[in-house]
Design brief:
alpha/beta; 5 strands; binds D-ribose
Length: about 140
């Protein structure tokens, strides 16, 4: 599976660790930046770069990290065909795949510790969309786009 990661300065440290973690676990990883956390950057710029990689088929999923994950989710969900979930507990990492077919996961780099975010990412990447009644609901969301 191919995964793109992006962050702002507040999410950079956890992004850096997750890039290595995912590569070590056999995923093909694309890092859209930033390259360091030394300067303040704007999370929409990195959300758009990562979502573009999803929408063009370059990657299968995106993981975006800012201070809360909220700004990344708000930005990503502006884009048609993006379903971004801001997740803070591992159970929701699985549920956002199973019920919502989330193709973007957003995480908090400031309020959720790294080990919890790893558990969320593991749950997210190992769960599959269940389709059926959930597909009907996603179709209704798509009609709004
Ligand atoms: C940056 O200070 C912070 O606002 C950003 O990382 C994010 O939490 C916004 O949603």
């Amino acid at each position: 599976m191919r995964i793109v990661l992006g962050s702002d300065h507040a999410g950079w440290s956890q992004k850096d660790r997750l890039v290595s973690y995912l590569a070590l676990n056999g995923y093909e990883v694309v890092d859209v930046g930033p390259e360091n956390e030394t300067e303040s950057v704007d999370y929409p710029d990195y959300a758009l770069k990562a979502c573009d990689a999803v929408l063009t088929g370059q990657v299968d999923r995106a993981i975006l990290i800012c201070g809360t994950g909220i700004g990344m989710a708000i930005t990503a969900n502006k884009l048609p065909r993006i379903r971004a979930a801001n997740v803070t507990i591992p159970a929701f990492g699985a549920l956002c795949r199973e019920h919502n077919d989330a193709n973007v996961l957003t995480l908090s780099g400031r309020f959720i510790d790294y080990d919890t975010n790893v558990a969320i990412v593991d749950a997210y990447l190992s769960a599959e969309f269940e389709g059926e009644r959930h597909q009907k609901r996603l179709d209704k969301i798509a009609e709004l786009e």
